[in-house]
Amino acid sequence: MAIMASSPLHRLQFPKCHYLSLKSEFDPRLGFPSYSTLTIPAAINNSSSLVMDTVYTMEIEKDYFACPICYEPLIRKGPSGLNLSAIYRSGFKCKRCRKSFSSKDKYLDLTVTSGLLDYTENQPYLTELFRSPFVSFLYERGWRQNFNLGGFPGPEEEFKMAQDYFQSAKGGCIVDVSCGTGLISRKFAKSGSYSGVVALDFSENMLRQCYDFINKDDILLKANLALVRADVCRLPFSSGSVDAVHAGAALHCWPSPSNSVAEISRILRSGGIFVGTTFLRYSSTTPLIVRLFRESFSRTHKFLTEQEIEGLCMSCGLINYTSKVHQSFIIFSAQKP
User: Fold this and answer.
1) How far apart are CA 155 and CA 166, in angstroms?
2) Which residues contact 173 (CB under 8 A, 6 or more apart)?
3) Which DSSP state fits 48?
4) Phi, psi (rounded to 5 degrees) for 113
5) Are the C-beta atoms of 181 and 213 separated by less than 8 Å?
6) Per-residue pLDDT tens for 181-204?
7) For the CA atoms of the chain, what is the radius of gyration?
8) How deeply is 192 buried, as exposed, middle or buried, from its count of CB atoms within 10 A (0-12, 13-18, 19+)?
9) How many CB atoms lie within 10 A of CB 114?
10) CB distance 113 to 119 below 8 Å
11) Can you give the pTM of this predicted structure?
């Protein structure tokens, strides 16, 4: 399920032009200023000495997302809003590198290789495993339920635990990285606690499954919930632009946990919260035989210890680290200073 400094939402005012006017659906508590004001007087008529005193304005909105190449906020052409319908009908372009991005029917592709037809990269084993249509289909139909064998309390309890950590982020925007089929993303969206939820994953098929679940729920179809394909090592958001990041059962699947946590730290605003759950390599109470078994999987899974996770968060500039452990399950949180 592997799946990216300035404010990415701006509005500039220019002489009024009704067909370019957009109304934002974003909550001002996202942490981004909604617009900046530039007042332009009406033009002087060359044939007259009179200056018209009427001031006209036009609003141009830059979207919430940023280019995964240069991290510039993307210019959006189409209806505003974070919901699936608005994003599907919109096109996005980076003003700096001029790269364009568009929706793939069910999700917005914001990977660096978006749009390339004749280029492929060999991905790590786990990345390719979760891109499989078969695994994506099974994920909420038996696969995820087996996590309770390792101490995971179940999606509903995991969601409640995450919500406790995200109290200070309520009303803001939350990014659920490595969201898989959107099991927790959908709960965030239906909670009404956030002005926007971005369900983000590298797996095309996981996102398609997520869309299928959303498409059966009228509430979610109207919610500020976006599906985005992106690389957790190259998150498509401006630095300091996100209120909260969640990564459920994900860290052990990332090709580079250090690069991924560094990216999460980059996009979090000051005071923003990162909450993650994962399987521990072992805890202080793990039997020796289990430790040896998990060590044998360390070549394909990045199972870490409690101390390694805390050290990783601290080395990436996060503070106020806390965690709770049950068997091989850990939920941890850290904050951007």
Assistant:
1) 16
2) 26, 27, 30, 31, 64, 194, 195, 196, 197, 198, 242, 243, 244
3) -
4) -90, 10
5) yes
6) 999 999 999 999 999 999 999 999
7) 22
8) exposed
9) 19
10) yes
11) 0.79
